[in-house]
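On clarity, I found the account of how folds are encoded harder to follow than it need be. What matters is that the chain and its backbone geometry are given together, residue for residue. For the editor and my fellow referees, an illustration may be useful. For illustration, here is how one protein appears when written out as sequence plus structure tokens:

___
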Amino acid sequence: MQWTLVIPLKPLARAKSRLADTAGDGLRPGLALAFAQDTVAAALACAAVRDVAVVTDDALAGRELAALGARIVTREPPGGLNVALAHGSSAVRARTPESAVAALNADLPALRPPELARVLEAAAEFPRAFLPDAAAIGTTLLAAIPGRELLPAFGADSRARHRSSGAMELRLAGVDSVRQDVDTGDDLRAALALGVGPRTAALAAHLLIPEQPNG
């Protein structure tokens, strides 16, 4: 099964506020863009991915991600992340009604194409399925096979909400790169340990990454 990934990206100026202890206001927009670029590049290199649709109204991000081969879905409606994902999914299905669609976080700079392929292969066995994040609280990927609505419920405690919505939780080992999103300095440290893409690596080399707490 070939998938279309829908990746939401908020305006870069407002992105990654929780990285304030790691990167200043002038650096965070660049980091957010680097995360998205490395995520999109890895996704497009995945054998199970037919194409990538990025939902954003940020002009710079749109240009840079389109240059990598992503399709940009603009005119994002107000209402936050889940509205943006529903909008992007609808745009994909309007063009190709029988698409298998998966929402993917834009902040997976360590993403490995073979690991993403394993997750999507597992997701294809269920009408809807999701992968919890590394913290086991949130979600990094939510998938819906052809004929099924995505029904995104991202945000706080999205693992529990997606499970309650009837989506199957994927419990896979060896897919850490698909689970390691980056919201905090400790998240970035963990992603760097996995090995991030070139754009994130170039920017992170200039940052003081906080140590993870003991215990």
